[in-house]
Amino acid sequence: MSSPLADRLDHGVASGIDASASAPAAEADDNQVSNRSSQPPAVRKLPPPESSADTRRRSLVVASFWFIVLCLGLPIWWKTTTIYRANLPLSQMTDWADGKTCSPVFPLQVSVEAPALQDGEAQNLMRITQYALETMTDFPGYRLQLEMPQTTTADQTTDPSRESNTALTIRLQPGDVAASTLHPHLPVLEVTYPPSSIPSPESSSNGFATYLATQLRSTFAEEQAIMSYLLATSSIPSDQQPQGSSLDTTESLSKRMTRSLKYSGTYHLTFSLFTSGPAPSSWDIEAAIDQYMKPVLDMLKPIHNFTIDTQVQLYAAPGVHSQVLSKEDLSSFINAAEWPLSPGIGGAPTVNFVVFTGNQTIGMDSETETSQSWLIPQWGSVYLLSPPPATHVPSDLLKQPILTFTSHLLSLLGTPQSGSLPMRLSTLTRIRSADLLLRASSSLGSLARLSLALPSISIPSSVADGVAKSMHHLELACANLGSTESLEHARIAEAEAERAFFEKSMVGQLYFPDEHKVTVYLPLLGPVGVPLVMGLLSELKAWRQRRQQKAKLS
Amino acid sequence: MRLSSILQLPVLLASSLLAPIPHVAAEHTSNWAVLVGTSRFWFNYRHLSNVLSMYRTVKRLGIPDSQIILMLPDDMACNPRNAFPGTVYSNSDRAVDLYGDNIEVDYRGYEVTVENFIRLLTDRVGDEMPRSKRLLTDDRSNIFVYMTGHGGNEFLKFQDAEEIGAFDLADAFEQMWEKRRYHEILFMIDTCQANTMYSKIYSPNIIATGSSELDQSSYSHHADNDVGVAVIDRYTYYNLEFLESEVQDLSSKKTVGELFDSYTYEKIHSHAGVRYDLFRGGTDAARSRLLTDFFGNIQNVEVDGAKNTTMDEEMLALSKTIAQLREIAAEEEAAASNASQPAKSEPTRSQKKIQLAKPLTDENWWTKKLVGATALAGCTALWALGSYLEAPRN
After folding, report:
1. Which of the residues A113, A195, A403, B223 could staple to B312 if both were Cys, CB 3.0 to 4.6 A apart?
2. In Å, how far is A510's CA from the nearest CA of chain B?
3. Distance in Å, alpha carbon of A193 to nearest chain B alpha carbon
4. How many alpha carbons lie under 13 Å from residue B326 in its C-beta half-sphere?
């Protein structure tokens, strides 16, 4: 084909859609002309020269197409395909996770009641004891703050359980020897002292003060050990942690912490009676629970709520059939495949309590020991009940199982083992709030790391809200660590952090191979892109030609 | 087109390696199994029987149904082409009916999607999702993940409609690790070019194994002439054979390494792959893990010694007293607050309130009102304009 023709074709493409439609027609005409007349191609008829207005219009057409693509198409494409990522306070979140924002040091207030002592004497004793406490180097993470109650009266009816911020009250009574006992009902340490041992105002150390400090320390020793265990297993790097956890207790502690359930505001307790035969077929479980377990559940109310259901299953075959159960047998005793032990009711985690009536016994290593129950970590416990004479199990036969379950429940909830009951409970509150605090912080840290690691994950604004709320409550919890409000705030913080992390819309396929992207975009970009680019190219070419001609002319 | 995600992979890898590794205790307290079949239709019978055989095995070894997530995209037992309605067999001797009468399918039919699978792993589910369909694991849970279906280089097809990529799987595991949702994972996959599926995983404490290398197919073991299709894949068949014969019950001491050593090319007709490098402690630690750590449900029970019942009773008495004390305190407090605000309840007389219709959400309330008002005004204006234009003609 001759070069002018090719040139014209180029022009045809360059002038956009309508022009390109007319180009083949022109070509056809041309051919006809050249065929009919045998004149040399040099005198071939050319189309009339374009007016400069037409050329300008064509440039404008091409430019307007590009303008629309660049200024409207591209932004719309960008906007619609961009993944929305809300701004997260990443550095603050990591700070929380690293324990830089809130050092989990519990200020415990210990109030001292010393009705028999002069004010000055008591103050002095407190000063020395405080000093002795602070110099105990192997007792980190705790700041025991001694204080006198504001109304220093000899009124014995002041009820320490109502002052929520006071962890322990020391009641000093004159006596023969230095001795201390924990009050069984109240968080009170009753200390007797020989009157001669009260320090003089000048002395800086004193035997009785040291004794008092040691007693206080041993009272909080277990709590402190648990707390250091929690910190050690948390995401906080070890250089941020208060040092000095005793390694010898870690083994048993780790076992106990493994056994305990993850914190939840509500637990679902399932009491099941499984029988190997047709009897017994009914039990007085409601009365038994009311009588033997309810008080403990009531007591735990500030920390946990409980929902309860019960069931009776006849002809339930256990997983092991041997008459004497060894310890290995016990782990497969629960017939998980057939026993209906997983009620999908509600959102609360289930604690299972199983009473099995049958004539199997537990074979212990030593002959003297006997046992009827065992605890399954994070799951519940089982009690083997020897078959009752009647088909109905009265509530007094259930007393022992329920009492066992109650103590198992306490250990499943992670209640510390030493100390009086009120002390154990208040310790549980503190441990749980520290646990929740650490867990919420670590969730925030995970979310921060995740949002950095997966740049294509979308982060809706609800996640940012959740993070903000969580951090707000973490601050509140941190501000009054150790109180019951702190537990409440920590609970909210943890729930919000979890919700933010597990945001439902933060999912979907994040990774698309390039082949997928090409196949999606090619059918669109091919037909649209080729005329656009070719039009621009030929327009540029024409523009250059015009300039050269202009230069030649001038 | 944004292809940047590929470029970010090394960065991602590096960040995961450099991130502080949280301390994980050696013991696990619960076992979970995620068993996923991904193909539909009658000629894929073997994939469903693969999954159901694994289901039967983990159940036999004590993992309760509540801790098994079973995803079956099709129901072979009720397929009209099934000559043995209501049953699924994985062997032509038809000795064991895998469907049985005690089977709990968590995700069935069109619920088996890539999205649901990733949601399951990362637990990004709505409140409406029942607990039985969620993977409620924690940092003490060992998880066995088994997948089977039709796959290719770095993907596994779900239901002929979509596919999960090796990157997505790896990212899902990483999210689980970040949230401390597992202790150890055994990932097993039986599909063509299966080893490519675990090649992108970068999270720690995962042992992975697959049936075949890149460009290798995974073959079926044998067909049942009466059922009319292949009933099981080779790789799964020999896994099951080992588990049935060597791991009779929870007391078995067979290790993961011994299972992996039993794979041979002669048996499987493809090169089964194993990946240990992610595991903390390396190859030796991974190989020495007991099979029952993943396939069974080990419970470390604590047997009570001879207990003195008086202690329990004492505790009961104590808690009664404390509950009473609390009640008294609460009453006193209530009395005190009553005394301080005596006539508070007086003015709140029962006023008859008319219940208004309450919108479900009150976000953008004003915007919505404004839009409504504008639309109304616009219609009025149009009407007015129309009648104005019409007026001169008459």
Report:
1. A403
2. 6
3. 27
4. 16
A318-342 per-position pLDDT tens digit:
877 777 777 777 777 887 777 877 6
- Sequence-ordered list of residues with C-beta below 8 angstroms from that of A175, at least 6 positions apart, any chain: A192, A193, A194
At residue A386, the pLDDT reads: 83
* Contacts with B, A 283-342, CB within 8 Å: 292, 295-296, 298-299, 319, 327-328, 330-332, 334, 336-338, 341-342
SS3 per residue for A6-73:
HHHHHHHHHCHHHHHHHHHHHHHHHHHHHHHCCCCHHHCCCCCCCCHHHHHHHHHHHHHHHHHHHHHH
Q: Alpha-carbon distance A58 to A55, whole Å?
A: 5
Mean pLDDT for B297-302 is 75
**Closest residue of chain A to B174, computed from CA coordinates:** A450
Residues contacting residue A69 through CB under 8 Å, at least 6 positions apart: A532
Write out chain A residues lying below 8 Å of B29, CB-based. Answer: 258, 377-378
Q: A261-412: what CATH class?
A: alpha beta
Query: What's the rounded Cα separation, in Å, for the pair B192 and B149?
Result: 8
pLDDT tops 60 at residue A297: yes
As a whole number of angstroms, the distance between CA B111 and CA A471 comes to: 36
Is the pLDDT at B35 greater than 90? The verdict is yes
Asked if A259's CB is within 8 angstroms of B302's CB, the reply is yes
A508 near B CB under 8 A: yes
The CATH class given to the A108-219 domain equals alpha beta
Alpha carbons B185 and B175: distance in angstroms, whole number: 13
Which residue among A159, A258, A375 sits closest to B25, beta carbon to beta carbon?
A258
User: What pTM was computed for the model?
Assistant: 0.76
Whether B192 is catalytic is yes
Q: What is the mean pLDDT of residues B214-236?
A: 89
Mean pLDDT along residues B184-198:
92
Cβ separation A258–B319 shorter than 8 A: no
| Extents of the domains making up chain A | 90-97+420-511, 108-219, 261-412
Can you tell me the ipTM of this complex? 0.73
The dihedral through the CA atoms of B204, B209, B215, B218 has a sign that is negative
A344 neighbourhood in chain B, CB within 8 Å: 66, 130-132
Confidence of residue A28 (pLDDT cuts 50, 70, 90): very low
Contact A403/B at CB under 8 A: yes
Q: Does the domain made of B27-295 have the CATH classification 2.40.50.840? A: no
User: Rounded to a whole number, what is the largest CA-CA distance in chain B?
Assistant: 108
Catalytic entry in B47, B183, B192, B221: B192
Q: Which residue has the higher pLDDT, A186 or A535?
A: A535
Confidence of residue A303 (pLDDT cuts 50, 70, 90): confident
Peptide bond between residue B392 and the one before it cis (omega within 30 degrees of 0): no
The rounded percent of chain A whose pLDDT value lies above 70 is: 75
Cβ–Cβ below 8 Å for A347 and B131: yes
Rounded Cα gap, residues A182 and A427, in angstroms? 14
| Residue boundaries of the structural domains of chain B | 27-295
Residue in A closest to B170 by C-alpha = A511
B28 is catalytic: no
Cα torsion A234, A239, A241, A243: sign:
positive
H/E element holding A432?
helix A421-453
- Look at residues B204, B178, B200 and name the one whose alpha carbon lies nearest to residue B285: B204
